[in-house]
């Protein structure tokens, strides 16, 4: 057997290994893309209403698969308050669920109460520590959500535009993708 014939099987195995690696990488990329498209969605935070929990420009991974909104969840939903939306564009808001259908919300000067119990809200951000809530009472209808931004004195939310229909919810925030320092 010549030296050339002895190295041929190794060269063929190496080439086959490279093709297998490329095939596996291509399959992995396609599987991740398929799962992302079917199971998760992408959203970008735009505006200060969720400061300091989320900031403008942060990329979020959201999902609505088998999801039922719960109090405390951060959700992304269609902004149905925009009447003159450009066709083909999407406008979504990111807010925290304060109450779900069947609950009673009472906003008092000292905080937010749901069904008579004051919410512990360590995530709330205010520019001015003397910020006082404007009193409000609301019964949340079944199939609707009462939402508020974590930056309470700079958030357009259910205090202004009423309840959010659960059907408008695009998904619950699973994790922050970018920046990686807050992953």
Low-pLDDT segments: none
Could you state the CATH homologous superfamily of the largest domain? Umud Fragment, subunit A
- The name of the CATH architecture of the largest domain is Ribbon
Instruction: Write down the overall geometry.
Output: elongated
Count of domains: 2
Question: Outline of this structure?
Answer:
This protein is 22% helix and 30% strand.
Descriptive account of the structure:
By secondary structure, this protein is of the alpha+beta class. The chain has 2 domains: 1-39; 44-182, Umud Fragment, subunit A (Ribbon). It is built from 2 helices and 11 strands, in the order αβββββββββαββ. It has helices at residues 3-39, 158-161; strands at residues 41-44, 59-63, 74-78, 92-100, 104-108, 111-114, 117-118, 136-139, 144-148, 164-165, 169-178. It has a 7-stranded antiparallel beta sheet. The protein has a 4-stranded antiparallel beta sheet with strand order 7-6-5-8, with no helix packed on it. Strand 6 and strand 7 form a beta hairpin. The chain is elongated and about 80 Å long. The model has no long low-confidence stretch (mean pLDDT 83).
């Amino acid at each position: 057997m010549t030296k050339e014939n002895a190295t041929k099987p190794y060269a063929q195995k190496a080439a086959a290994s490279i093709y297998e690696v490329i095939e596996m990488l291509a399959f992995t990329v396609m599987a991740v893309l398929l799962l992302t498209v079917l199971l998760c969605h992408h959203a970008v935070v735009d505006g200060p209403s969720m400061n300091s929990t989320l900031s403008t420009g942060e990329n979020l991974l959201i999902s609505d698969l088998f999801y039922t909104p719960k109090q405390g969840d951060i959700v992304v939903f269609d902004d149905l308050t925009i009447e003159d939306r450009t066709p083909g564009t999407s406008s979504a808001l990111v807010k925290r669920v304060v109450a779900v259908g069947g609950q009673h919300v009472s906003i008092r000067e000292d905080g937010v109460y749901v069904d008579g119990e004051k919410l512990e809200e360590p995530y709330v951000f205010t520019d001015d520590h003397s910020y006082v809530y404007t009193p409000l009472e609301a019964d949340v209808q079944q199939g609707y959500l009462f939402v508020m931004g974590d930056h309470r004195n700079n958030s357009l939310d259910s205090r202004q535009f009423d309840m959010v229909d659960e059907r408008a919810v695009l998904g619950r925030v699973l994790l922050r993708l970018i920046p990686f320092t807050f992953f």
